Amino acid sequence: MVNRINYVYDLLGPSLLVDTACPSALTVMHLALRAIQNDSYARGANTVVVKRYDKSVEHQDHILVMLIGS
């Protein structure tokens, strides 16, 4: 299912299913930050889009939250 979402929406980068019960959101954010540090894009299928700060400014994206570290 996860790879199908990437295909349908033409998303780039890795896709993976994280099933860790309650802390899954924190786990996903940690993995997203690590992906950004490695110059990869990380996007959530439902509500979270994570992007490097410099790329967000370059694309004039509306920034709601900044994550400093994990």
UniProtKB/TrEMBL annotation:
Residues 2-38 form the Beta-ketoacyl synthase-like N-terminal domain. GO terms for molecular function: acyltransferase activity. This is Beta-ketoacyl synthase-like N-terminal domain-containing protein. It comes from Mycena maculata.
